[in-house]
């Protein structure tokens, strides 16, 4: 196994995840099999209990792992299926070591950071790197490891030491270190400054790791003089200094690395040039250029709770992008804070209220994504009501589906106090209830998580047609509450159809309103399996409906074209 380690310096948020994913894309295009590992130095066992405002979205894997959003980038870029073990956290490592200590596995030894924690990290990396994630048998050729945070952070020190030991044990021909750093330009001087990167590399080398390549983030392309200066002070060959400057869209990043022969520098360091072929990135080139040249756009109202940080809905945004490109459209997402639509805001902040409603009315479609807690729920219900009554295409995901059900119960079935037990435990009409198997005392990993099967109850529904009339679909879930099965017959009698259910038939998965052009709610998260060039069926349906292409698309599918 050969390892490519990606570290970051100077500041966080440089795009290490996109850089690591792009490196994987270029190596995969060279005919090599690639897997990925993300190391997060925080003490949380996983990302499941972290606020979206704090850390962006929680990405869910097939096996139910709640992981860092960078693993979503890996899956989308490399088209692989990762496992929960591909995300290593300090919490997981310490938990495994302490469990061994309690069992007596260390035979009375004093348990220390070195060697016990560092050995646990190395063993975890080597075992996970050997797990195939591309559907083929046998381990991958190269494992790309991204170390979260910034070099010098206290919490990442054990990982740095473990990776230093790993680089020594596997040998220099099997280990390549790429350091991502910032080259700022001071407004007054206008000169590209290398000093922050020099200090970052010096700190990395003091910890026992020497970078083989530098990936320099900058607003504009690096000057040759800047590269020469970096080479002199950072002990890295000029040809191994890659410039990852700002680009129109992230699909250009693999092309940027390829054009600078970044793949060759990595292959030479790993002594596997003879095993590789020239990188075939025609599909990526076409995709990047197609997006750059799109003229027409579609306005999408995204009504959510966490719009202060767009990374909170990263997979939703990517899924919309994939669907829009398939329809030859550029996504224009209008972010609406759900609470701004509520009547209370009309009194406290009338301008925000008026602007939110104007934005909603100007959108071609409405999307209500997942979330937890009661803040903004009434605004989401108003958005669902607007979309239903005005025949505006609507997609509700997870909480968005539950919103659909609550709104319909109140407005159509006249159950005025209908609600979710999550928001109102005393509601006389709990149309959404807590799942029987859930835990009310522990938050982490106690939801219904991971890939679950949904069986279509009929092929005569828009969702089934979008999924090519398959009898079932496997999608990823993350929820504690569900539609109350005691109310399903009443909803269906009122023309709100549950066209998808789980294998027991008692858990509602997909809801549709047949009298509406596109009014769909799903309990699962279709965004997690959307891929460039292979968009999620439901996101595609939403955009097709918003642009007036849905019926033609369905007819074409039904005719087998």
TrEMBL record:
PROSITE patterns: GATASE_TYPE_1
SUPFAM superfamilies in the cross-refs: Class I glutamine amidotransferase-like, P-loop containing nucleoside triphosphate hydrolases
InterPro entries on file: Class_I_gatase-like, CTP_synthase, CTP_synthase_N, GATASE, GATase1_CTP_Synthase, P-loop_NTPase
Glutamine amidotransferase domain: residues covered: 309-543
Matching Pfam families: CTP_synth_N (PF06418), GATase (PF00117)
Enzyme class: ligase
UniProt xrefs under Gene3D superfamilies: 3.40.50.880, P-loop containing nucleotide triphosphate hydrolases
Record GO terms (molecular function): ATP binding; CTP synthase activity; identical protein binding
EC id: 6.3.4.2
Pathway info: Pyrimidine metabolism; CTP biosynthesis via de novo pathway; CTP from UDP: step 2/2
CTP synthase N-terminal domain: residues covered: 2-271
Catalytic reactions of this protein: UTP + L-glutamine + ATP + H2O = CTP + L-glutamate + ADP + phosphate + 2 H(+)
Translocase keyword on record: no
Keyword vocabulary terms for this entry: ATP-binding, Glutamine amidotransferase, Ligase, Nucleotide-binding, Pyrimidine biosynthesis
Keyword Nucleotide-binding part of the UniProt annotation: yes
GO biological process, one term: 'de novo' CTP biosynthetic process
Protein family per UniProt: Belongs to the CTP synthase family.
UniProt function note: Catalyzes the ATP-dependent amination of UTP to CTP with either L-glutamine or ammonia as the source of nitrogen.
Protein name: CTP synthase
């Amino acid at each position: 196994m050969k390892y490519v380690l990606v570290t970051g310096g100077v500041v966080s948020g440089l795009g290490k995840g996109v850089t690591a994913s792009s490196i994987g894309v270029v190596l995969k295009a060279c005919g090599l099999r690639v897997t990925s590992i993300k190391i997060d130095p925080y003490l949380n066992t996983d990302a499941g209990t972290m606020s979206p405002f704090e850390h962006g979205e929680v990405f869910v894997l097939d096996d139910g792992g709640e992981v860092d959003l960078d693993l979503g980038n890996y899956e989308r870029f490399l088209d692989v299926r990762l496992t929960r073990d591909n995300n290593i956290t300090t919490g997981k490592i310490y938990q495994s070591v302490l469990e061994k200590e309690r069992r007596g596995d260390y035979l009375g030894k004093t348990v220390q950071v070195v060697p016990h924690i560092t050995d646990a990290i190395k063993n975890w990396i080597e075992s996970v790197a050997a797990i195939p994630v591309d559907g083929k048998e046998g381990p991958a050729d190269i494992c790309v490891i991204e170390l979260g945070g910034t070099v010098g952070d206290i919490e990442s020190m054990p990982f740095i030491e473990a990776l230093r030991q790993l680089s020594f044990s596997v040998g220099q021909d099997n280990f390549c270190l790429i350091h991502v750093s910032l080259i700022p330009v001071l407004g007054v001087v206008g000169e590209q400054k290398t000093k922050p990167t020099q200090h970052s590399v010096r700190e990395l080398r003091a910890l026992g790791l020497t970078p083989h390549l530098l990936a320099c983030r900058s607003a504009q392309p690096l000057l040759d003089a800047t590269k020469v200066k970096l080479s002199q002070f950072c002990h890295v060959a000029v040809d191994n200094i890659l410039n990852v400057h700002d680009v129109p869209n992230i699909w250009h990043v693999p092309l940027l690395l390829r054009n600078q022969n970044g793949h060759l520098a990595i292959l030479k360091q790993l002594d596997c040039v003879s095993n590789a072929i020239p990188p075939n990135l025609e599909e990526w080139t076409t995709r990047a250029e197609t997006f750059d040249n799109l003229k027409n756009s579609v306005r999408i109202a995204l009504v959510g709770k966490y719009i202060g940080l767009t990374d909170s809905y990263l997979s939703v945004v990517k899924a919309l992008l994939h669907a829009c490109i398939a329809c030859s459209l550029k996504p224009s997402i209008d972010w609406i804070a759900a609470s701004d639509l509520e009547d209370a805001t009309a009194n406290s902040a009338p301008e925000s209220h008026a602007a939110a409603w104007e934005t909603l009315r100007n959108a071609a479609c409405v999307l209500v994504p997942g979330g937890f807690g009661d803040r903004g729920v009434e605004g989401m219900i108003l958005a669902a009501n607007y979309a239903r009554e005005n025949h505006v295409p609507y997609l509700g995901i997870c909480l968005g589906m539950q919103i659909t059900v609550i709104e319909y119960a109140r407005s159509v079935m006249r159950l005025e106090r209908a609600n979710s037990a999550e928001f109102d435990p005393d509601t006389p009409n709990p149309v959404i209830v807590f799942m029987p198997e859930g835990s009310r005392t522990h938050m982490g990993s106690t939801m219904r998580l991971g890939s679950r099967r949904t069986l279509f109850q009929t092929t005569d529904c828009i969702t089934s047609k979008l999924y090519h009339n398959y009898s079932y679909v496997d999608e990823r879930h993350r929820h504690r509450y569900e539609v109350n099965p005691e109310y399903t017959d009443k909803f269906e009698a009122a023309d709100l159809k549950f066209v998808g259910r789980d294998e027991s038939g008692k858990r509602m998965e997909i809801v549709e309103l047949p009298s509406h052009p596109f009014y769909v709610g799903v309990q699962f998260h279709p965004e997690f399996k959307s891929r460039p060039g292979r968009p999620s069926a439901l996101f595609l349906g939403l955009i097709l409906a918003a642009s007036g292409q849905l019926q033609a698309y369905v007819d074409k599918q039904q005719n087998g074209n």
